[in-house]
Amino acid sequence: MYYFSPTLGSDAVIDPLKPELLLYAPTKNGVRLVAAEYFVAEAAVTERPSVMGQAFDGPMAGHEPGMPSHYDLHTWLWQANPNGVFAQFNPNVHC
C-alpha cells in the first residue's frame, strides 16, 4: 500500500527528509511502514535525478491511469531487503 503526497510529488524538488511516497505492508494487525520512495515526473526534469548519491530508476511509465512517466527511488529503511536498501523491489514484502 502506498501513500502519495500530491504536494511533494508535484514538483522536481527532492528533499531526503520528505519522500513523496511512503510504502506500507500488511500484517495480521494492520499495516506497517516498510519503505520511503522518492518520485519525480519525467517532464519535470532534464536529467536523471538522484538523492543521497543514488540515481533514480527510470524513466518508467506510470503504474496506474493518470500517473505520468517518472523516475523513482525506493529506500527500504524499515524492512530488510536482500537486494539492497535502494533496490526497486523487495522479495520480503508482499502486498
Give structural attributes.
single chain, 95 residues, mainly beta, two-stranded antiparallel ribbon
Give your account of this protein's structure.
The chain is mainly beta and 95 residues long. It has one domain (2-75). Helices cover 4% and strands 38% of the residues. It is built from 1 helix and 7 strands, in the order βαββββββ. A 5-stranded antiparallel β-sheet has the order 1-2-3-7-6. A hairpin with a 2-residue loop joins strand 4 (50-51) and strand 5. The longest helix is centred in the first third of the chain and has 4 residues, at 6-9. The chain starts with a strand and ends in a 20-residue tail after the last strand.
Strand content: 35-45%
Q: Return residue spans where pLDDT drops below 50 for at least 5 consecutive residues.
A: none
Largest sheet, spatial ordering of strands: 1-2-3-7-6
Count of individual domains: 1
Query: How many individual helices?
Result: 1
Distance between the termini: 7 Å
Structural class: mainly beta
Question: How does the major sheet shape up?
Answer: 5 strands, antiparallel
Number of strands: 7
Average predicted confidence as pLDDT: 94
Rounded to an integer in angstroms, the radius of gyration calculated over CA atoms is 13 Å
Q: How helix-rich are the residues, as a percent range?
A: under 10%
Characterize the overall form: globular
N-to-C order of helices and strands: EHEEEEEE
Compile the SSE list and pairings.
Blueprint: E1 2-4, H1 6-9, E2 21-27, E3 30-41, E4 50-51, E5 54-55, E6 57-60, E7 70-75
Antiparallel strand pairs: 1-2, 2-3, 3-7, 4-5, 6-7
